[in-house]
Automatic annotation (TrEMBL):
<protein>
    <submittedName>
        <fullName>Uncharacterized protein</fullName>
    </submittedName>
</protein>
<keyword id="KW-1133">Transmembrane helix</keyword>
<keyword id="KW-0812">Transmembrane</keyword>
<feature type="transmembrane region" description="Helical">
    <location>
        <begin position="9"/>
        <end position="32"/>
    </location>
</feature>
<keyword id="KW-0472">Membrane</keyword>
Length: 384
């Protein structure tokens, strides 16, 4: 081959290479523009179970032991019925916790602790529901040996050894979760500040942050072992999805626009119109820096919190509240604005995440974290 032919071949390779790159970029641009890259997701295999739970739950705690509720009773007979209902409900709840403890004492201890803090039976039922789904997925059955007439909080607390065995939820037993939970705990102040600004439960932000991080770490295991695990930091996506919450740039722009559009069903009110105002004349660069800056994730949490709050507001404006359904909020966080269509029978699902050979949908894993009791000291459970 002559020198001329050699350079000609190199030239062709460069030209074709740049052309191919251009085609890929153009295709990628239009894929994002026309929402081809949006998460379509799957409907979770337990969707009907989640719907049944929602149908049998109320937005408010069914805790009966309050001065207000006792004050509304008109007769001694009603008071007797009331106290009997309270005793029966409490005994059955404690029995379920004790029975779970024969298989998974760590989880039973966590649920008992949450129960004794507020005596909120609706919240406790959801924690037990999450545990029951996981037990069944593990191929086991919770025994029903407890006698409601003989159970007590003190006896259960004494019998449970929270140091024995693995946690019921497989993802909690992983190195990835040890790294993620440590990093999240360090960022409590930023998360709480962002949640207060967005007027949303901080644990909802943490739930979807957790799922996004588990998805990132388990899909990029080698990267996790080399960089994130030794430094105990969160993974910061910088490709199509940005930052620790995995917010797409197009979604970030929509969040900003809907803060100011008073005609939008997502509009949060005048108090939020300036939540994401820019300080420069280059909003694209400033937005990118907000979401990808290492070791300062406040804006990722704020965008994520506002994103969820906007979709919750959309549903409320349609006369349908999802404020007590973290599994639906998580699903919508994953699949995006375009698939947020208020209806009376919303589906739980989203993208599939595989952890230790177990497949989760984004929404179900968000629910599972919320009611697992993990990080409850730092981010208390408030949705019942």
């Amino acid at each position: 081959m002559t020198l001329r032919k050699f350079f000609k071949a190199i030239w062709k390779i460069l030209v074709y290479g740049f052309a191919a790159t251009g085609v890929i970029l153009v295709v990628g641009f239009f894929a994002i523009k026309f929402h081809i890259t949006d998460e379509k997701g799957v409907v979770d295999s337990h969707n009907n179970d989640f719907q049944e739970l929602s149908n049998t739950s109320t937005n408010n705690s069914t805790n009966l032991w309050t001065a207000d509720s006792v004050g509304t009773l008109k007769t001694i007979d009603e008071l007797i019925v009331y106290l009997e209902t309270l005793r029966k409900t409490k005994s059955e709840m404690l029995c379920e916790i004790q029975d779970l403890g024969t298989l998974y004492p760590k989880n039973a201890s966590t649920i008992l602790n949450e129960y004794t803090i507020a005596y909120n039976d609706t919240l406790t039922k959801k924690m037990l529901f999450a545990a029951d789904l996981q037990v069944k997925d593990n191929g086991k059955e919770i025994p029903t040996d407890c006698d409601p007439k003989q159970v007590s909080e003190e006896d259960i607390a004494t019998s449970l050894d929270s140091t024995v065995g693995e946690n019921l939820y497989p993802w909690i037993n992983t190195d990835e979760w040890a790294t993620i939970s440590s990093a999240i705990t360090k960022d409590k102040e930023a998360i709480d500040t962002a949640a207060k600004k967005a007027e949303i439960d901080p644990r909802l932000i943490v739930a979807n942050l957790t799922v996004e991080q588990l998805r990132l770490f388990h899909s990029q295991r080698e990267l996790f072992e080399k960089f994130f695990q030794p430094l105990t930091i969160l993974g910061n996506a910088t490709k199509i999805s940005l930052g620790v919450m995995g917010i797409k740039e197009a979604t970030a722009k929509q969040i900003e626009e809907r803060l100011k559009d008073s005609s939008s069903p997502y509009y949060l009110g005048p108090d939020h119109e300036h939540d994401l105002d820019f300080s420069s004349n280059d909003p694209d660069t400033e937005r990118y820096n907000r979401l990808t800056t290492e070791n300062d994730y406040y804006y990722s949490y704020l965008y994520g919190g506002l994103y969820m709050k906007q979709m919750m507001t959309q549903w409320e404006n349609a006369g349908l509240s999802i404020s007590d359904r973290p599994e639906i909020i998580g699903t919508l966080f994953n699949v995006g604005f375009n698939q947020s269509k208020p209806n009376e029978n919303p589906k739980v699902g989203g993208s599939t995440i595989t952890i230790r050979d177990k497949k989760y949908s984004f929404g179900s894993l968000s629910f599972e974290f919320y009611y697992s009791g993990e990080l409850a000291t730092e981010f208390p459970l408030t949705i019942d």
